[in-house]
Amino acid sequence: MRTSQGVVINTFLDLEEKSVACYEAALGKPVWTLGPFCLHNRDGEDMASRGGNKSGVSERAIVAWLDKQAPESVVYVSFGSVARKLPKRQFEIGHGLEHSGRPFLWVVKESELASPEARMWLESLQARTSGRGLVVRGWAPQLAVLSHRSVGGFVTHCGWNSVLESIAHGVPVLTWPHFADQFLNEQLAVDVLGVGLRIGVMAPVMILNDDAAAPVLRGDIARAVSELMQGGEEAEERRRKAKEYGAKARKAMEKGGDSYERLTHLIESFRHVEAKNMNIAAG
């Protein structure tokens, strides 16, 4: 950090202007906000391929299922690539989604289906919620999902990429942090930006063991999903703010936008340093 010219961050100024200003003041160096990186290339095929490629359901099948759902009716559920849910926690999530009565797209890791009991239970859930629910084993094309018109909410572990991707696509979040910076990201989404709703996690869990002292139960999940996806003044305000920040994110990445201009400035800074070094080397 001492020898660096500055810091590059995956965010945009309208999202965290005060924080960026404080960080720059503390560093005494530029902070280049160049994001959201997820909006760098919005080509459909590129969006579908980002993040991985191992899925029990094809991207085409996922989009086809989403196409059949009403606008902003589907809640998307994914907890990132690191956190692991124990079978008893998976059962609570599944029952909660079932009892919510809402259409859902739920991503479950293959490593979470190691036991025959978990696999059999998931198959029974799929049978009971056929048409209303889609369970994707392994990986889902998250950007393609979040950008789809039928998706109206995202149950997330609050990893920064997921939070920013949801905001960039104008989708409000139901926050379920697990560890590390995820609780700070939850606070930003809920308390600062007003685009999120807490599911009620009070303490962090171990990375590979989510056996929390106060677990989130199916009733909590059903109520929170319903509250996120329902009508009403508070829910509408979350949706309005999410869409507003989504529009600002897109504007930041367009020519003349803040992130676009900061990237241009960063490139010019590197060119200046390179030219200076070449002149010094030339004598």
UniProtKB/TrEMBL annotation:
Keywords: Glycosyltransferase, Transferase. SUPFAM superfamilies: UDP-Glycosyltransferase/glycogen phosphorylase (SSF53756). PROSITE patterns: UDPGT. Transmembrane segments: none annotated. It comes from the Eukaryota. GO terms for molecular function: UDP-glucosyltransferase activity. The keyword Translocase does not apply. InterPro entries: UDP_glucos_trans, UDP_glycos_trans_CS. Gene3D superfamilies: Glycogen Phosphorylase B. Belongs to the UDP-glycosyltransferase family. This is Uncharacterized protein. It comes from Aegilops tauschii subsp. strangulata (Goatgrass).
